[in-house]
Amino acid sequence: MRETDFIGGFAKGLRVIEAFGEAKPRLTITDVSKDTGLDRATARRCLLTLAELGYAAYDGKFFELTPKILRLGHAYLSATPLPVLVQPYLDQLSEKVGQSASASVLDGTEIVYVARAAQKRVMSINLMPGSRLPAYCASMGRVLLAALPEAEARSIIEASERRPNTSFTKTEPDALMDELARVRRQGYAVIDQELELGLRSIAVPLENARGRVVAALNIGAPAAHAAADDMVEHYLPAMREVQAALRPVLA
Amino acid sequence: MRETDFIGGFAKGLRVIEAFGEAKPRLTITDVSKDTGLDRATARRCLLTLAELGYAAYDGKFFELTPKILRLGHAYLSATPLPVLVQPYLDQLSEKVGQSASASVLDGTEIVYVARAAQKRVMSINLMPGSRLPAYCASMGRVLLAALPEAEARSIIEASERRPNTSFTKTEPDALMDELARVRRQGYAVIDQELELGLRSIAVPLENARGRVVAALNIGAPAAHAAADDMVEHYLPAMREVQAALRPVLA
DNA sequence: TGACTTTTGTTCAAATATCGCACAAAATGA
DNA sequence: TCATTTTGTGCGATATTTGAACAAAAGTCA
Known about the structure:
With 251 residues, chain A is an alpha+beta fold. The first copy, chain A, is built from 9 helices and 8 strands.
């Protein structure tokens, strides 16, 4: 790609949108300038452009995003076959086992939820399509990392900010790589309260007809409901069925 | 705002992202150029920029969005207090009445779901945060339109593509304005299979402490489950409670 | 309070990058 | 194969970015 095939202003604008996140609903020009590293004048122009287009609101001091910004993510969710295809299977699965079922894909060091069928929520975090979790300590993340070449998986793990969420959280790269090897052998991953106390989950890869892993499927359950060892016998068979049913359907 | 405070390249890029939607997962340069009205060279540069940044994938012929694009909408959902505040109330409400509960806001002629607690799905359409429906024929849309000045509501209705989804769908602007007047009087809206056969729903406005309507709350139920008249007595009391509980909490 | 310092927002003209046309090349399809 | 459509590229005209300078607001301390 040539130098002139890149629109700097567009790229900068996208960085400005991403600056709004996690507990930062209202930002001043200077905030955005600092977060993005853009010049204050440029940040201001990006923000005013967003406001002019209705993607942001401006009260003279603070900018905040408007719901119109959801159009951008919606363009993906409604246009991509994966979420639409897996949703009914998640609904059935979730109904059958009485726990929440989700599907996700990998984006950098994080997993992104692309579809979800929730039963009454047990986690403190609220997950929905578009939500993100660090891959290294989520069951679907382990499954997706295990599907990558070793070197790539290790580089993602090392690039992750490995904060111990609970006393169970594994953070050592070598320990995590061993874990991935196990996941690869078994064909599933079980997470026991590494993300949040009281939450266990199990995940399997979703492959397409050509055998490529395109997403992961999981079931999360309160720790009180099933011991770590029971997760496999309770949930894995039903998940295997979904896995098999989706294989010929996925692109 | 001055002319030079607007970044054309950014605005064009956003139009390109929005070109991907509803059954258009894969677009060529020419497709995008036609959909957006942008010059081919410009569309190409926007697409290559998206690809370079990892928001899109390019196989030499087709572009498609990647899950990274969800970061943009997620910036809103996780940064805005509304979805986070209402979610637990939706969960409780949904649990209590055994039907799906949702919250939405208005964006142009459409309502946008910002939070949802789903019970087993009865609708053919799959709704999730970020999903959109035409305001004129959705219960939450009626409530949100009723909260606007009459002239504004009418102009939105007239700007809507009023396709009869079922034989029940009201499409006449005057009939719809009458309906809005009723909704305003009653303080709630009931939709009887105007969006989809077999689906009834009831919505109430969510006001903040200053009395401004900031969102709408609804419950959807299969038509088999409750007659149109029963919707009110079955669901309205519980919805009123949520409405009252949220009033002091919302900004 | 009032003077001083720091932070924040805005403006401007020079330096730089983008836009869109026109043309060439490549792919598609009859 | 030829006609048609689609894609890639060079270039002048046009629009944007930059960074410093200025103005305004907020914070600080005696």
